[in-house]
Amino acid sequence: MIVVTGAAGFIASCLVSRLNAANFNDVVVVDNFSVEKKLPNIRGKKLREYVDRETFFDWLDTNHAQVEFVFHLGARTDTTEMDPAVFDLLNLNYSKRMWQACCKYQLPLVYASSAATYGDGTLGYTDTEEALFPLYRPLNPYGDSKNDFDKWALEQTEKPYFWAGLKFFNVYGPNEYHKGRMASVIMHAFNQIQQTGSMMLFKSHHPDYTDGGQMRDFVYVKDVVEVCYFLLHHRKDSGIYNLGSGEARTFLDLAMNTFNALGRTVDIQFKDTPEDIRDKYQYFTEADMSKLKSIGYDKPFTRLEDGIADYVQNYLVPGMYM
């Protein structure tokens, strides 16, 4: 059996689809299944068992001998949540229990970290300088919770025989319909263009960037789950890895490609970045992907143009799930 936590969420549900496509059908999905808006993400998938996140560790005590691998992708991901106690409970302490359980039962573990750990990026975006991890200053409690767990994991003398933390950059793609404000800018662009025929982007408040010239590392969710699938079989070279495309692109690139995918005339407008986030706004992120490539991952990452076209035309327009 393969355990996937957060399985009704965005990335994890796409991973379940990838596992099913490879004939891994004994998948145990773990989540808070009372959140009904997420349930379509796992409808129709081949699953072994549903386990509530509150009872998972009791379930694991009973069933650990049948578990082959754990993907711990469940987390509170709302970057606007300002209560650290929420993240301590769901992101930090739950992840510690997962780590300790995988040590106890000798289970390989892949867990979700985040590029939010890098803060404003002044120390760069390299995953090879672990000595810098204590120096990172994330911009919100969500980033703090992910960075705190990364640091804790590195400090442990007892570790799973294989483990990997994946610092997700700006992931986009199918199965994020339920995420509301936290959905990718591509989904917001799609909705705005369909409803109004235009797209609104934030103005730049930085002299080095034009309006819409702010840059992010956008990575397609299909590439993310391919890396997870690679690690399922690799099971060596433990550590923390960036997971982005390795190429920063502008929000103008993103918006124009969304218009193109819809066959619509480009109409982009700009508004001031809200003052409450203006001082914490990131103008550039780009994953250094050399560490992942150094352990043998050699698949190319999807170009933004191709990822947006696939996402918009094959999922958003028909309302399909992966």
From TrEMBL:
InterPro entries noted in UniProt: Epimerase_deHydtase, Heptose_epim, NAD(P)-bd_dom_sf
Protein's UniProt keywords contain NADP: yes
Domain named NAD-dependent epimerase/dehydratase: residues: 2-244
Keywords, in A-Z order: Carbohydrate metabolism, Isomerase, NADP
List of residues binding substrate: N170, R181, H188, F202, K203, S204, H205, R216, Y281
Top-level lineage group: Bacteria
Pfam families (UniProt xref): Epimerase
Signal peptide region: none
Active-site residues from the entry: Y142, K179
Membrane listed as a keyword: no
Notes concerning its domains: Contains a large N-terminal NADP-binding domain, and a smaller C-terminal substrate-binding domain.
NCBIfam families: heptose_epim
Functional summary from the UniProt entry: Catalyzes the interconversion between ADP-D-glycero-beta-D-manno-heptose and ADP-L-glycero-beta-D-manno-heptose via an epimerization at carbon 6 of the heptose.
The family this protein is said to belong to: Belongs to the NAD(P)-dependent epimerase/dehydratase family. HldD subfamily.
Name of protein: ADP-L-glycero-D-manno-heptose-6-epimerase
Species this protein is from: Hymenobacter arizonensis (Siccationidurans arizonensis)
Gene for this chain: hldD
